[in-house]
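Quality-control log, excerpt.
Job 1 of 2 completed; input and output follow.
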Amino acid sequence: APVARVFYGYNATLKVIDAGTDKYNKTSYGVTFGGGINIRMNAKGNVLSVNLFVPVRSKKFLDHYDEINDNPSFDMQNKLIPVALSVGYNFRK
């Protein structure tokens, strides 16, 4: 069965280590939209769930991220991902 999901909360964080200050650290709060399918796997009701999520981040956060990412003084270890995929399995007794 198809499913739609909407979440609100933080959907990205930026933490700069060894900068001597936390002024570069930021958290993005916003909506994340998702959709997917739930597939019933057997008569017990076990369900395989596959979803794709798209976070909505503010321009202010993305501009700050780009500023840090483009600054050669910082070594960005992890990049923002534009979408996320989840796969889950629900075991019913």
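Job 2 of 2 completed; input and output follow.
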Amino acid sequence: MIAGDYVETGGNITQLKAVAARAPRNVELSLGYGIGRLAAGYGILLLAGTLSPGEFELDGITLRSGGRAGLPADTAADDLKRERVHDAVLRERGVNGYRALQQMALRAIAITGPDRIAKIRPVTPHDDDMKPSLQYPMGGGGLQWKLTVGRRFLIAATVDAAGIAHAPDFSVPIGPHARYEDRARLNKYLEQVAAV
């Protein structure tokens, strides 16, 4: 991953304010990644453009690991038995109610600022042999959606194994003991950079 490049991807997304310029371990806790998942580094991706209702499903909040009710299971088969938030909302609200909630979600999203859509792409890939309960524990409660189509994202910054964030024109530490000024600089950049 190279900061400034674009990539097409799908999967779970959240808002920038849930990840931003936090220390890697704090991003893991916010999103529901297992301990050390981001230790080798990761990319901070920002959505290019806007979303439409047909491009995403409601996945609740990151407390709902994988967008599913209950705690993550110890096996992939058991984990898939947990009901998806998407399915529960559709059943309870019907198609029109579901669409209304999607429209409400879209009003909470911005093209810039802390409410813009972001995605974390870990260097360490998903491990099919790891227990879901360890790989994707409960997160911190930020909003999350699941893309149903691949979308274009700007790789706004990369974070290396030393906790240094690299944007196209500057690098700053964001690890546990990073200075406020460094985190604020990265946050300001992430909130303002154009993703087209």
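Post-run check on job 2. Helices lie at 24-31, 76-79, 85-107, 132-135, 180-192.
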